[in-house]
Design a protein that fits this description.
The structure holds two protein chains of two kinds. By secondary structure, chain A is an all-beta fold. Helix content of chain A is 0%, strand content 52%. By secondary structure, chain B is an all-beta fold. Chain B has strands at 5-7, 10-13, 19-24, 31-37, 43-50, 53-56, 65-68, 75-79, 88-95, 108-109, 113-117. In chain B, a hairpin with a 6-residue loop joins strand 7 and strand 8. Classes of the chains: A mainly beta, B mainly beta.
């Protein structure tokens, strides 16, 4: 059972388009992180959200944490080819004191065509 | 994540050999985590270590896998008698203190070690 479901799994768009990717769970997370991973590289942290309803912006990227802290979304405005990559969400839970442990989704593979 | 150093970046081993993966955490970080990314799978937690202590190894296979983080030197993930199913990317991450991710602290990943078992 995948604790964090990401959708869509694959997304191919043209430069300049907007897009949203989703990260959903039936579990509550104390925090949620978004990473971008390029082929042959490690995940690079984009943002951490900790408060239900929180919205964070990073240039053309907007991240939202659901009110109930069970889901999150990443919206990219005017996508560019440099945005191409695997977008991963990862959540930390407070259960049993193991809030150092991240649960990852399988990711959304985004391709932005010039 | 440039501060977390992993080596080797790529490793090829024949079935039955041993694989040793090394991780030097970011400067000032005393907490190390290992994750594994299998093909078509998300990253999965393996083990959490502090200097000279294994805190949580609940994600580590019970056999053939071991990890250490000695007082001096890098953290080592050791896989004995490798099998084809061990082929994966192994990522190390570090944090400066107890990774209380709920309070907004975060962990930083290295670039990974890609193990191929032939």
């Amino acid at each position: 059972t995948q604790l964090l479901e990401q959708s869509p799994q694959f997304l191919s768009i043209q430069e300049g388009e907007n897009l949203t990717v989703y990260c959903n769970s039936s579990s509550v997370f104390s925090s949620l992180q978004w990473y971008r991973q390029e082929p042959g590289e490690g995940p690079v942290l984009l943002v951490t959200v900790v408060t239900g309803g929180e919205v964070k912006k990073l240039k053309r990227l907007t991240f939202q944490f659901g009110d109930a802290r069970k889901d999150s979304s990443l919206h990219i405005t005017a996508a560019q080819p440099g945005d191409t990559g695997l977008y991963l969400c990862a959540g930390a839970r407070n259960s049993g004191g193991s809030n150092y442990k991240l649960t990852f989704g399988k990711g959304t593979l985004l391709t932005v065509n010039p | 994540n440039a501060g977390v150093m992993q080596n080797p970046r790529h490793l090829v081993r024949r079935r039955g050999q041993e694989a040793r993966l090394r991780c030097s955490p970011m400067k000032g970080h005393s907490h190390v985590y290992w994750y594994r990314q299998l093909p078509e799978e998300g990253l999965k937690f393996m083990v959490y270590l502090q200097k000279e202590n294994i805190i949580d190894e609940s994600g580590m296979p019970k056999e053939r896998f071991s990890a250490e983080f000695p007082k001096e030197g890098p953290s080592i993930l050791r896989i004995q008698q490798v099998v084809r199913g061990d082929s994966a990317a192994y990522f190390c991450a570090s944090s400066p203190n107890l990774g209380l991710l709920g309070s907004g602290n975060t962990i930083y990943f290295g670039e990974g070690s890609w193990l191929t078992v032939v």
